[in-house]
Specification:
By secondary structure, the chain is an all-alpha fold. Helices cover about 75% and strands about 0% of the residues. Helix 1 crosses helix 2 and helix 3 packs across helix 10.
Length: about 350
């Protein structure tokens, strides 16, 4: 055994003997096994595509609101929106000529619906992959569409509730207490909204109580990402040059969407690991631990596409350390409910 392998084996033994570290390693390993980076990239792509018709829709609505309202036009010119790169230049040049267009409104609404449905479909696919649901047990198009519409309803209600709660905190408190209270309230509401969305997206065979841990972690992280995004726009991008501001806005938006998608996927992976007790995982093989075998078997079984098809997984005997092998036997998880 060379020095590097000896060091890695030592680290592997340490993380297996300490549950908190073993759980973290198991979540990271499960994320890699499920190709979580690709799932997050798919979510980011469809979310970014959905923003294009959203911008068209917003500009059309803005035209309806500003038409024949000089006071509203001046308010837009005085707002921070007029300082944003690209968008601010267009508003300053065309604010007095902006007009609502019914055709653009319809196209924007239909495009937004198409893009949003794409995001919802990818999110459902990601949850099915994370929970290793066999293809034969996954819902068809129409149940997925109904679930997507339900997801939009939950998100809309969550946004309204968050806005109302933030306004209530701002009017009740002032100064730093208001900012701290708003952040804490946002973290709690984001965790609750995440739980509601996960309940819609996750297979019904998974109990709701199994979705809490990942959402409790994701809620504060979503709040931190929102605060960071607002800070970036307010202090870094508002007064950027037109060309630099355009690229910085696009790259920043893509990065923010990807980080948000990663948080969601990692939260789902955390729920799976804790529910199925998929730890400790091995860093180096052989030997495979009991959770290693369970994860690999679940990945193989999820490839079943027809009722007539049945995938069976077997593992060959391995030489293992007596201490680690005894520990793995105690942590061998039960069969997956999905």
């Amino acid at each position: 055994m060379n020095p590097i392998e000896r060091l890695l084996r030592g680290a592997d033994g340490f993380q297996r003997r300490h549950r908190p570290v073993a759980v973290v390693v198991a979540v990271v390993r499960k994320y890699g096994d499920d190709r979580g980076g690709l799932l997050a990239a798919l979510i980011t792509y469809y979310a970014f595509v959905a923003l294009i018709p959203l911008l068209l829709l917003l500009s059309t609505v803005l035209g309806f609101v500003l038409q024949d309202h000089p006071g509203a036009q001046q308010a837009v010119l005085d707002s921070a929106l007029a300082d944003f790169p690209i968008i601010g230049d267009q508003i300053r040049q065309n604010v007095h000529s902006l007009q609502g267009n019914a055709l653009a409104l319809v196209i924007g609404a239909l495009g937004l619906l198409y893009g949003a449905l794409g995001v919802a479909q990818v999110l459902q696919h990601a949850m099915a992959e994370v929970w290793n649901v066999p293809g034969v047990k996954r819902p068809g198009y129409w149940p997925r569409l109904a679930r997507s519409l339900l997801l939009f309803t939950v998100l809309a209600a969550g946004v309204l509730l968050s806005t109302a709660a933030a306004a209530l905190v701002a009017t009740t408190l002032g100064g730093r207490p208001a900012r701290v209270g708003a952040l804490l309230l946002s973290a709690v509401l984001n965790a609750a909204l995440c739980l509601a969305c996960f309940r819609v997206l996750t297979p019904a065979t998974v109990a709701t109580r199994a979705l809490w841990p990942g959402c409790a972690i994701a809620g504060p992280l979503f709040t931190a990402l929102q605060a960071f995004g607002s800070l970036l726009v307010a202090h870094e991008l508002r007064h950027a040059g037109q060309v630099y501001g355009f690229f910085a806005t696009v790259i920043g938006l893509l990065s923010w969407l990807y980080l948000t998608a990663q948080v969601a996927v990692y939260a789902a992976e955390t729920n799976v690991v804790l529910t199925r007790r998929l730890w400790p995982r091995s860093i180096l093989q052989p030997p495979l631990t009991g959770p290693d075998e369970e994860v690999l078997a679940s990945i193989a079984r999820q490839e079943e596409r027809r009722p007539e098809q049945q995938v069976e997984v077997t593992f060959t005997d391995q030489d293992s350390d007596a201490e680690v092998g005894e520990e793995d036997e105690h942590h061998r998880p039960p069969q997956s409910p999905t």
